[in-house]
Automatic annotation (TrEMBL):
The active site is at residues 239, 339, 374. Pfam families: BAAT_C, Bile_Hydr_Trans. Coiled coil: none annotated. Residues 212-429 form the BAAT/Acyl-CoA thioester hydrolase C-terminal domain. Residues 21-150 form the Acyl-CoA thioester hydrolase/bile acid-CoA amino acid N-acetyltransferase domain. InterPro entries: AB_hydrolase_fold, Acyl-CoA_thioEstase_long-chain, BAAT_C, Thio_Ohase/aa_AcTrfase, Thio_Ohase/BAAT_N. GO terms for molecular function: fatty acyl-CoA hydrolase activity. GO terms for biological process: acyl-CoA metabolic process; fatty acid metabolic process. It comes from the Eukaryota. This is Acyl-coenzyme A thioesterase 4-like.
Length: 438
């Protein structure tokens, strides 16, 4: 459709520079009334892969369209999706399979170009009517980043701006391994000294040799930092990291977190906990389930690995469960009801039943999200139903099915992040004034 207007369209994105968990508005003016238009986002990842999202809109009688208010009639998202241009991002056609978008260098922004095109078809072949480059940051102005120099712990420490002291958080990711900083940087942007901890390299899940004391040392690195309030340190873990989190909170005589947040894997299945204090975490994971020949890995029709059904029977084995009755601090559990990697809802049901039996169910706060998958991350992160995953000491690459549907999963990420920040503020700041935005 040729654009029969002498006035050039105006594309407004506000704010064009923001933290990744902040919303933006996208408004296009000076369009022909009642015309079809496509609004697209485009991002070149640090792995040199292009990611996009787009919605098909119809301008109103004033010649305007608003991604915040108007309905998308097709594209990577439909209906009213104010942040669909980020949350529904996917690799462009022809990209490598199994990709996952993760920020590696948190000192630089995620650059996203928002553009508007005529029509709903073949927009990729067109020159955009207007474009705006936006910056999405994980680090707020003034947040400091310090790679740890200590030989005993590998990670990165983030400190908010200001005089402090601040509450602290130990941040642990899951079975993919490596050092991931983007959530810790974002938490520091909300007023917490945060340590992003690395406890094994990618592909070293079964050969890593980190003992329980490694995590206790990491916790004390935060607790003893001069910018941290000693008695206000929490732990946040996702997937395998949440299993370690729960073990620390129940079994350690050294670690006393003020609160913990577990996203996904709760009542993990370690070896007998009487020996856990001296058992390398790699052996603990090896015995967990993945390489146990009694529980062969299942696959879906696309040959994606499904661990959920393999793990369910083990939840009935009391000898393999964490003794959650020892929990001494508030705990927030985040679960996706379509998690295909781990029986998360069933696990937290078991945790709740155990805590109720000993009169500690008041310590547990849970949030279960229908049609959300395993990888519940900070808001507006794209949904990844299945991605590449390296497992085993052989560095074998598989495709892991995480589950979830894009719209409900995106809603779960946004809502759970609000709940996490509220939970942390209540338990770590208490009556103090927490800076929700720096």
């Amino acid at each position: 459709m040729p654009l029969q207007r002498s006035v050039a369209p105006i594309l407004c994105v506000q704010p064009s520079r923001a933290l990744v968990d902040e919303k933006f508005t996208v408004l296009v003016k000076n369009l022909p009334p009642g015309g079809p238009f496509t609004v697209r986002s485009l991002h070149l990842s640090e792995d040199n892969d292009y990611w996009e999202a787009y919605g098909h809109y119809v301008s109103n009688h004033q010649g305007e369209l608003s991604v915040w208010d108007d309905l998308s009639f097709g594209g990577t998202y439909t209906g009213r999706e104010p942040m669909g241009l980020l949350s529904s991002m996917r690799p462009i056609p022809g990209s490598r399979p199994g990709l996952r978008l993760r920020k590696k260098d948190v000192t630089t922004p995620m650059l996203v170009t928002i553009s508007v095109y005529c029509g709903h078809e073949d927009y990729r072949d067109q020159t955009p009517l207007a474009s705006v480059l936006t910056e999405r940051w994980h680090m707020a102005p003034g947040v400091q980043r310090f790679p740890l120099q200590e030989n005993t712990v590998r990670g990165t420490l983030f400190i908010p701006p200001g005089p402090g002291p601040f509450p602290g958080i130990l941040d642990m990711w899951g079975g993919g391994g490596g050092l991931l900083e983007y959530r810790a940087a974002l938490l520091a942007s909300h007023g917490y000294v945060c340590l992003a901890l690395e406890y094994f390299k990618p592909g070293e899940m079964t050969s890593a040799n980190q003992e329980f004391s490694y995590f206790e040392t990491a916790f004390n690195v935060i607790k003893d930092h001069p910018q941290v309030k000693t008695d206000r340190v929490g732990i946040l873990g996702l997937s395998l990291g949440s299993a370690v989190t729960l073990n620390l909170a129940t079994e350690s005589s050294v670690v006393e977190p003020r609160c913990i947040v577990c996203v996904k894997r709760y009542a993990c299945i370690p070896p007998p906990l009487s020996a856990f204090g001296s058992t390398p975490i790699g052996c603990y994971w090896f015995l967990l389930v993945v390489f146990d020949p009694r529980f062969p890995v299942k696959h879906d029709e696309n040959n994606c690995e499904i661990w959920r059904e393999m793990i369910l029977p083990l939840l009935k084995d009391s000898s393999r469960k964490v003794k959650v009755e020892k929990l001494r601090c508030p705990m927030l559990c985040i679960s996706g009801c379509d998690d295909q990697n781990w029986p998360a809802v069933e696990s937290v049901d078991d945790v709740m039943e155990t805590l109720r039996a000993v009169g500690k169910d008041h310590l547990l706060t849970r949030a279960d999200y229908p049609d959300a998958g395993h990888l519940i991350e900070p808001p507006f992160t794209p949904h990844f139903r299945a991605t590449n995953f390296i497992r085993g000491s052989t560095m074998e690459k598989v495709v892991m099915l995480w589950g979830g549907q894009t719209k409900p999963h995106s809603e779960a990420q946004e809502d759970s992040w609000r709940k996490i920040l509220s939970f942390l503020q209540h338990n770590l700041y208490g009556n103090d004034h927490a800076r929700s935005r720096l």
